[in-house]
Amino acid sequence: MAMEMRLPVARKLPSESLGRDTKKHLVVPGDTITTDTGFMRGHGTYMGEEKLIASVAGCVERVNKLICVKALKTRYNGEVGDIVVGRITERRRSAEDELAMRGFLQEGDLISAEVQAVFSDGAVSLHTRSLKYGKLGQGVLVQVSPSLVKRQKTHFHDLPCGASVILGNNGFIWIYPTPEYKEEDAGGFIADLEPVSLADREVISRLRNCVVALATQRMMLYDTSILYCYEASLPHQIKDILKPEITEEIVLETRQRLLEQEG
Amino acid sequence: MAGLELLSDQGYRVDGRRAGELRKIQARMGVFAQADGSAYIEQGNTKALAVVYGPHEIRGSRSRALPDRALVNCQYSSATFSTAERKRRPHGDRKSCELGLQLRQTFEAAILTQLHPRSQIDIYVQVLQADGGTYAACVNAATLAVLDAGIPMRDFVCACSAGFVDGTALTDLSHVEEASGSPQLALALLPASGQIALLEMDARLHEDHLEQVLEAAAQAARGVHTLLDRVVRQHVREASILLGD
Prior knowledge:
The complex is a heterodimer.
Chain A: E1 26-27, E2 32-34, E3 40-41, E4 45-48, E5 51-54, E6 58-63, E7 66-71, E8 83-87, H1 95-101, E9 110-118, E10 124-127, E11 134-135, E12 140-143, E13 156-159, E14 163-167, E15 172-177, H2 198-216, H3 223-233, H4 244-262
Parallel strand pairs in A: 3-7
Antiparallel strand pairs in A: 1-6, 2-5, 4-5, 6-7, 8-9, 9-10, 9-11, 12-15, 13-14, 14-15
Chain B: E1 25-29, E2 37-43, E3 46-57, E4 71-78, H1 94-110, E5 119-129, H2 134-148, E6 158-165, E7 168-171, H3 175-179, E8 184-190, E9 195-201, H4 207-243
Parallel strand pairs in B: 4-5
Antiparallel strand pairs in B: 1-2, 2-3, 3-5, 6-7, 6-8, 8-9
Helix pairs in contact in B: 1-2
GO molecular function, one term (chain B): mRNA 3'-UTR AU-rich region binding
Domain Exoribonuclease phosphorolytic (chain B): 21-152, 155-219
Organism (chain B): Oryctolagus cuniculus (Rabbit)
């Protein structure tokens, strides 16, 4: 079996031309953002001696009177209405819980859910009270940083290339074969164990590698970027997508296409 | 060591530096993809690696959870090949436990733990090559790693060691200078406010000299801050270019 090895090479710094022209206000902890007391302080800042000081390293975002600093990489912070994908690790052992839920969701199941409420200590409460949420069947899970998932109106996408994707706000991305018919009455609790065809599997593998490639190059993940990346990767073999040179090439092409589309 | 002059008449140290000069510092953030935050630093020949996980749920007993803030857990480990003689126990020995405790005290002062109640933040530091100033290198590496993880901090924590030889305060001591037996202290500073996070010394120094040595250490720590600040800004700039919008 052939093995591939490579020697370390010096990193190429990303060229300045890739970014937009807007000058972003980058801060590090300890930096004073402003001495104007009229602003409300948001995440990533704290008040010290009449000054607003940054507490994380990132760029300053100002929405009217609210100033917050968006860190480059953070753990997921739940907000009401977010879609999350996750695995059940532990559950309550009360009597009525046993009767009602054990039949549907077990420990170890992968589910999609929506955030219902956030507690003061950061814990979130989830619900699956809609037919589009529930247990996830056959597919591939990719874990990326939550800061790379763009906030959109909907996080469930049926991509034209032949697979569907759920972009969880917590950074868990679920790629699965598009169900042929929507079972309206069963909801999300019956796992579909029909064998998946080779063509569908290849599409899903390619999508998975594209998502990993975009994540390593720190690009925002949303349906358009994933689709453009998929199309840019078609000339290459699926397993080659993760090679550093090919990853760079594909992501550069995706970036350029996205810039053209907006410009 | 008899005959080894730590400070020459012209004011040069063993490695050619001046009394208040720092060694060459190189640092990088985000060296590991799996950890929440990671960083690597080289201060002269001292090389340290720091990895941060968190904030996450408390592992083990839930009773240790603090209701109003996060628990900071630090572990210091030095590789068996880090010193001239091969070390038998990389962690768990007294010096490692003590350094781990000192790191924990330092970071509890700097991290805004009230923002993450009932969680735990793990900081692991590993020294790959020890040539003096290991505590300082660990603190500097851990600061970068905590920043990389996006955990909110009051300010950078910059540390430096300092000693006192022939009436002059020397900063950023190498192993030779540390082993000479002259008094030395380690200082961890929050540069913006000038507050001291930790000051450690276990030697005898006349109180008249303390201020001089402390001032030299603080000055050196601010020098370290300038460098770490540059590293972090460069990293943030590169990442924000890649992120685009």
